[in-house]
Design a protein that fits this description.
The protein is mostly beta strands. The chain has a single domain, classed as Immunoglobulin-like. The protein is built from two helices and 16 strands. The strands form three sheets. Strands 1, 2, 3, 4, 9, 10, 11 and 16 form an eight-stranded mixed sheet that branches. Strands 8-7-6-5-14-15 form a six-stranded antiparallel sheet, with no helix packed on it. A hairpin with a 7-residue loop joins β7 and β8. The protein is globular. The chain binds protoporphyrin IX containing FE and 2-acetamido-2-deoxy-beta-D-glucopyranose (2 copies). The site of one 2-acetamido-2-deoxy-beta-D-glucopyranose (NAG) has 2 residues, from loops.
Amino acid sequence: MGHLARLATAVAVLFAVPSLAAPVAASAKYCDGPTGVCYSEISVGVAPITWRIAIPSVAEGPFDILLQIVAPKSVGWAGIAWGGGMLYNPISLGWANGNSTVPGARFASAHVQPEVYESAEHTVLKGSGTNATHWTLTTLCKGCSTWTHNGGAKEALDPGATAASFAFAASAAPPIDVTDPASPIGIHSEHGIFTLDLAAAKSEQFDAWVAQLK
Ligand code: HEM
Ligand SMILES: *[C@@H]1O[C@H](CO)[C@@H](O)[C@H](O)[C@H]1NC(C)=O
Ligand SMILES: *[C@@H]1O[C@H](CO)[C@@H](O)[C@H](O)[C@H]1NC(C)=O
């Protein structure tokens, strides 16, 4: 390949794949005023989208995960891949449906439309909804902390990790049917990776928080 062709390819790839150059590692603690629920949080990407995670005080998985996604209304869907990449791990999706928000579970074994994932269950909790500028999904995921990789290896999140790796993706285009948690989605317009302090996301109050948010 000549220099020009190579340059053109590099430029095309850069524009086709707008993602973060390097993992963003500055996660922080966020406590919600009205509910007192505390999460590890990070804001990433062009929108940007805020990802918040709280987990129970456990030494190993499986455990339930409290996930809060806060996104500008310009975001049609946003997703987090719990194993840190698009492939072979549970993906939690969120989007707005009028004044409410919808969660979805997916699993991808190729870089195509991910399959609906029956092994993860998302419950919509209080603190979900929209305002003039943003949509917020607060959801409990059962089945997002352990999974089976391609080939059968068991994978599990380490709740003691101070820099657990996650991947995210988002698109400005909403899913085809925003009322349906199993709706097809279009490809992301951005994706990237970040780390969150899972150890700091642990709380003895986890079960009480979940009960309070139901
Ligand atoms: C219709 C749905 C989807 C299609 C067609 C699709 C397609 C693709 C393709 C072709 C790539 C490789 C090229 C590139 O780097 O841009 C890719 C990478 C990626 N996608 Fe998707 N994707 C979809 C949904 C998702 C979802 C829901 C997530 C959720 C987090 C996601 C996360 C990622 C990530 C993190 C990468 C970087 C490489 C990797 O981790 O494998 N994608 N996707
Ligand atoms: C959605 O919220 C807006 C602003 O709070 C309100 O004006 C509108 O009536 C709500 N729509 C529905 C369908 O509840
Ligand atoms: C809408 O909600 C977001 C997320 O909670 C918040 O940051 C923003 O200030 C809210 N905007 C208005 C106008 O209330």
